[in-house]
Structures are given as C-alpha cells and as structure tokens.
C-alpha cells in the first residue's frame, strides 16, 4: 500500500500515486506513460497480473490501477508520440508524468521576439525565475481529467498541487489518445 492519502476521487488518487512513484525515482527522469485500468476488473480478468502488482489484498473499493507502459521514445516530440497511441477497451484512462521548466506569467513579456523552439528553450533554461516542475496528468475515456504539479524546490508530498485544469494542453493531448 502506498503512502498516498485518500483522495476525493479514484482519478485523483491515481494521479497522486503516480506522482509519489515518480518522486521516488528522483528528478531528471524521462516522461512516463501509464494505462489506467479498473482495479476490480483487473483482479477478475487478470488475477495473476493483479497478484504481481500486489492488488490481491486491496479493498474492493479501490478504483484505478496505473500500469506503466514501455519507455517513451526520446527522439520524437511528445505530442507526435501521443498521436500514435491507441488504447484497448480494457484501459479506462491514461496518465503521463513529465518534467519541464516553467516561468512565472510575469516573464512572458520578457521573451525576446523571433526565437525558434531551440533558442526559446535555451532562453527559458537560463532565465533566473525558471522553476523545474513535474507534471502528472491523467484523463479518463469520458473526458474527466486530473493533474498534479510538484516543484523541484518544494519537493514534498504536502506541496503537490492538484486540479483538473492545471495542464489543459497535455490533458487534451491525452484525451485524443482515446479518439476513434
């Protein structure tokens, strides 16, 4: 059993469990993709996998189980990679954890004009107000979404911000992986 506190919804709990897992791996990690499956359905249909994941003793009310997928290719843009994903029907939702540099809104006016993506990334990386953030975003097939944000400088389970609309672009990209 994880140290994740009980959350209001199964999706929030899954996001916090993934955030806790990623936190245990430390910073400077590659993006990680997870399938979210209904735990009760997993136990019923795949008992050996459920046992491997340590779910045989979980209470019946446990909602979603995150299952990490293969490594995300580093030689492709993340949005391009997400466009290639199709999930089987047994997958209820998906989640992604990724680290990025973030600037405060006040820095937007300081961005030099005419920078290409590479030069913009370099400018952000050297900006004095930059902050490293780990984002965990999850969506369900029905469009429900949840996110968790953890700043590197405040790397503590009590300092994780959650909410459905913290990273809307990434949530939309994940939702698109369920489109027919």
Q: What attributes does this structure have?
A:
six-stranded antiparallel β-sheet, globular
Molecular structure report:
This protein has helices at residues 10-25, 39-45, 47-52, 78-82, 117-126, 168-176; strands at residues 32-38, 64-68, 93-102, 131-140, 145-151, 161-163. By secondary structure, it is of the alpha+beta class. A hairpin with a 4-residue loop joins strand 4 (131-140) and strand 5 (145-151). The radius of gyration is 17 Å and the shape is globular.
Architecture blueprint of SSEs:
Blueprint: H1 10-25, E1 32-38, H2 39-45, H3 47-52, E2 64-68, H4 78-82, E3 93-102, H5 117-126, E4 131-140, E5 145-151, E6 161-163, H6 168-176
Antiparallel strand pairs: 1-2, 1-3, 3-4, 4-5, 5-6
Brief digest:
With 180 residues, the chain is of the alpha+beta class. 29% of the residues lie in helices and 23% in strands.
SSE-based structural type: alpha+beta
The SSE string, one letter per element, is HEHHEHEHEEEH
- Unreliable spans are none
Radius of gyration: 17 Å
Report the sheet with the most strands, covering strand number, pairing sense and barrel closure: 6 strands, antiparallel
Strand content: 15-25%
The total beta strand count reads 6
Q: Numbering strands along the chain, what is their spatial order in the largest sheet?
A: 2-1-3-4-5-6
Give me the oligomer status: single chain
**Continuous helix count:** 6
Shape: globular
State the helical fraction.
25-40%
